[in-house]
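Design job #97: recover the sequence.
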């Protein structure tokens, strides 16, 4: 059958370039491998020329695939499943890129795109390390290309094709029609929670961070293969710093998105997807410190190999966790499975088994010192710091992997619960993590404060005391003042935990003060050499922001005398923490008078925007917040909210809608009005008018599963409100055998329900009802987060320090 209106060329070109990318990556990998093994210079040169041409072809192909897929999404070619599933006509253009990486195929493509960029840089800058390093990166390109290949080999599907046609992926009677595209008027839309500017920039940065972890990994593999066990450290160190800076930035961009878009009142919830990105970063930072130890003392080389290998391998493991669907019940934003679990596991094991085996085989050959480092030396405590970070990462990934462990053991235990009771983190998952990580924070704060004042090999006590006394005294005074007057009174988990928080706050302040002092005392103000100290000071400030904003968080909407209205099933909250506001009625909330001023509805989707006015009781301040919420939108059951916040230098006021009335269910129905109208006729209702624009009839519609002999008629009605808003409603009349039934459409913003009752002689019988809401109210939750700006400032300073260190190391490595 020849389908009408389909644009097949973009998909055909896209699939061609996907296959070209796969083949060229394979050729590049083989050619680079042969080049790294060649003995004769001429043979080496010939192989490397072929490898460069092939990798460049791969890069061009990936870029072409990227552009073609974006063309399909941006031009709303709904004959392609990817465009239909992730975009819509009503989606704002600024969020089109977010559609690209909402799906698994797009995110894999983004990952391989960054590999291409990094590979092209390494082709010019890696020098003698190009062949062994690019062998690894080209091999990764083969694996990533296979993830979007969408080809079948011996009955097994390899990858998921981003250019798959909707009619080939969904079984529905509509696709038996040549003109099925006439009935697919819109796409499924982007998840509303992802319609945020952070989701346009956060995923590309995060995936660049993920992609960059392969570079230190590849250098480590090259060192093991060539037996140049320590030579690779110098060129790999700046890449490791780059990876830590970019991945850390991406993680915190995600935290900012969570803070602005989710409703748990913070930026971090120990969600498995959050943990899966944090663990490789912790291990990479740990590996950077052992690399620095080796550069100065020739120690910790074995540890460095292990850490840099694990940093990339845990990226692959996190890929399996978040894409296999195994975390579907424990994570709020894990991908759903694409039936690619076997391929994802293969991706992990094809790197993990050979790399760890190679390390094991070469382990005894790797140079090491039999004499332990002196207890007072800098390298000893840098290694301890790396070990602490690694332990933190192991604990986090262990807790995150509980569903995986349960699944594996369950395969052997079966349904017999007496043999194995599934493990569970507990109801308070946040505290389960925090009660361990609080000690990690204390240790890291102290170590990052003191270690830089130590000398390599050995440090005299008098020297250390002389250097560290001043910063210690200043930090002690500042810590005491903050703990006494800072109102850090987090009593939720007992006094012992509160004392740990106090110690962690003091150690964070110590880290900031000591590192800033070291720039003056140890480096004599030379900023070009102070990247490490700036990064440590930023990390200390980050820890301080986390501790103070979390332990001092206050629920401002906790009430005892607010209006007692039902808060609805959507709230799912402690009712004493949610404040219900009647429209235009001031309600007391702490030092504020709060009032619900009004709301508006998006003309394109059922999304409500609420105008909440805050007035300080002393009359000195007034501001408005405009959180939004939606109910049962595009398959999202229940209430979903996007918060809003007022930012001050020392705190944030953060609010979100926790419950709202359904304008149809909670309203009083007026009697239905029935009108006999023709196309183009206008009908008045209380708040405006509507026009019957057209009526289309045909055999079946998408998703209704009608038989061929059944018919359906769709009336397109344009609703114009007196406020100037315009809406489109499409009530449906279905005739199946001897019966007919109607499917009304609701214009929520106008509290109007429209229904197509029958068609006769070109005339339509339209029935409409209006709903009058007796009381307009909304329920919200309001937090106060003190000094949260310290967290974001700390991130910026830490990343700046890492970038400064990276630039210095690139210059020292003299990469040409």
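Job complete. Output follows.
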């Amino acid at each position: 059958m020849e389908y009408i209106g389909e644009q097949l060329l973009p998909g055909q070109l896209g699939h061609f370039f996907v296959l070209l990318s796969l083949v060229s990556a394979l050729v590049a990998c083989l050619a680079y491998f042969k080049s790294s093994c060649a003995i004769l210079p001429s043979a080496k040169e010939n192989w490397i020329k072929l490898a460069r041409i092939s990798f460049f072809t791969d890069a061009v192909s990936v870029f072409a695939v990227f552009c073609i897929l974006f063309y399909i999404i941006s031009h709303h070619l709904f004959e392609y499943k990817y465009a239909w599933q992730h975009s819509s006509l009503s989606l704002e253009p600024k969020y089109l890129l977010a559609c690209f990486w909402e799906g698994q195929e797009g995110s894999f493509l983004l990952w391989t795109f960054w590999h291409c960029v990094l590979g092209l840089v390494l082709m010019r800058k890696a020098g003698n390390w190009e062949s062994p390093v690019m062998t690894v990166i080209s091999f990764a390109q083969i694996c990533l290309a296979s993830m979007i290949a969408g080809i079948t080999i011996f009955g097994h599907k390899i990858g998921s094709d981003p250019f798959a046609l909707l009619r080939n992926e969904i079984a529905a009677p509509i696709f038996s029609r040549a003109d099925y595209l006439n009935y697919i008027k819109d796409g499924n839309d982007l998840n509303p929670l992802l319609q945020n500017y952070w989701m346009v920039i956060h995923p590309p940065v995060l995936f660049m961070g993920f992609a960059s972890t392969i570079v230190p990994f590849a250098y480590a593999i090259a060192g093991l293969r060539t037996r140049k066990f320590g030579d690779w450290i110098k060129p790999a160190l700046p890449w490791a710093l780059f990876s830590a800076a970019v991945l850390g930035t991406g993680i915190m961009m995600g935290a900012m998105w969570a803070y602005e878009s989710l409703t748990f009142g913070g930026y971090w919830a120990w969600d498995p997807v959050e943990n899966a990105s944090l663990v490789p970063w912790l291990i990479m930072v740990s590996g950077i410190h052992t690399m620095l130890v080796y550069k100065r003392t020739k120690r910790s080389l074995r540890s460095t190999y292990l850490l840099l290998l694990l940093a990339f391998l845990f990226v692959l493991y996190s890929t399996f966790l978040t894409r296999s669907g195994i975390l579907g019940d424990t994570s709020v934003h894990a991908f759903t499975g694409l039936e690619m679990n076997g391929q994802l596991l293969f991706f992990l094991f094809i790197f993990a088994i050979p790399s760890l085996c190679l390390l094991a085989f070469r382990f005894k050959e790797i140079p090491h010192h039999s004499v332990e480092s002196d207890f007072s030396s800098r390298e000893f405590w840098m290694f301890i710091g790396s070990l602490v970070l690694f332990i933190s990462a192991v604990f986090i990934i262990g807790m995150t992997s509980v569903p995986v462990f349960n699944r594996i053991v369950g395969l052997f235990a079966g349904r017999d619960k007496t043999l194995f009771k599934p493990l569970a983190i507990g109801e308070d998952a946040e505290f389960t993590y925090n009660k361990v990580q609080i000690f990690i924070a204390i240790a890291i704060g102290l170590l990052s404060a003191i270690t830089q004042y130590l000398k390599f090999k050995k440090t005299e006590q008098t020297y250390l005391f002389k250097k560290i006394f001043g910063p210690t005294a200043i930090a002690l005074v500042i810590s005491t003042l903050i703990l006494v007057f800072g109102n850090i009174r987090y009593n939720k988990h007992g006094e012992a935990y509160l004392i740990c928080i106090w110690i962690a706050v003091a150690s964070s302040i110590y880290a900031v003060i000591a590192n800033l002092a070291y720039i003056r005392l140890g480096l004599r103000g030379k900023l070009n050499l102070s990247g490490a100290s700036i990064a440590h000071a930023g990390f200390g400030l980050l820890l301080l922001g986390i501790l103070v904003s979390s332990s001092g968080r206050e629920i401002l909407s906790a009430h005892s005398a607010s209006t007692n209205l039902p808060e609805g099933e959507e709230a799912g909250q402690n009712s004493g923490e949610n404040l219900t506001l009647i429209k235009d009625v001031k309600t007391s909330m702490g030092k504020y008078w709060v009032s619900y001023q009004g709301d508006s509805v998006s003309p394109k989707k059922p999304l409500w925007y609420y105008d909440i006015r805050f007035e300080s009781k002393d009359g000195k301040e007034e501001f408005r917040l405009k959180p939004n919420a939606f109910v049962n939108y595009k398959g999202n059951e229940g209430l979903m909210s996007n918060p809003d916040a007022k930012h001050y230098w020392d705190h944030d006021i953060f609010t979100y809608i926790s419950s709202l009335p359904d304008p149809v269910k909670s309203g009083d129905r007026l009697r239905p009005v029935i009108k006999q109208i023709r196309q183009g006729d206008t009908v008045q209702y209380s708040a405006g008018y509507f026009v019957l624009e057209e009526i289309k009839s045909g055999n079946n519609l998408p998703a209704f599963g009608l038989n061929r002999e059944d018919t359906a008629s769709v009336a397109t009605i344009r609703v114009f409100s007196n406020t100037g808003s315009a809406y489109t409603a499409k009530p449906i009349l279905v005739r199946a055998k001897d019966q007919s039934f109607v499917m009304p459409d609701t214009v929520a913003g106008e509290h109007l329900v429209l229904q197509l009752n029958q068609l006769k002689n070109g005339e339509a019988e339209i029935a409409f009802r209006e709903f009058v809401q007796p009381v307009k109210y909304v329920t919200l939750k309001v937090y106060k987060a003190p000094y949260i700006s310290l967290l974001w400032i700390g991130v910026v300073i830490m990343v700046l320090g890492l970038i400064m260190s990276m630039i210095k190391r690139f210059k020292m490595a003299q990469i040409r």
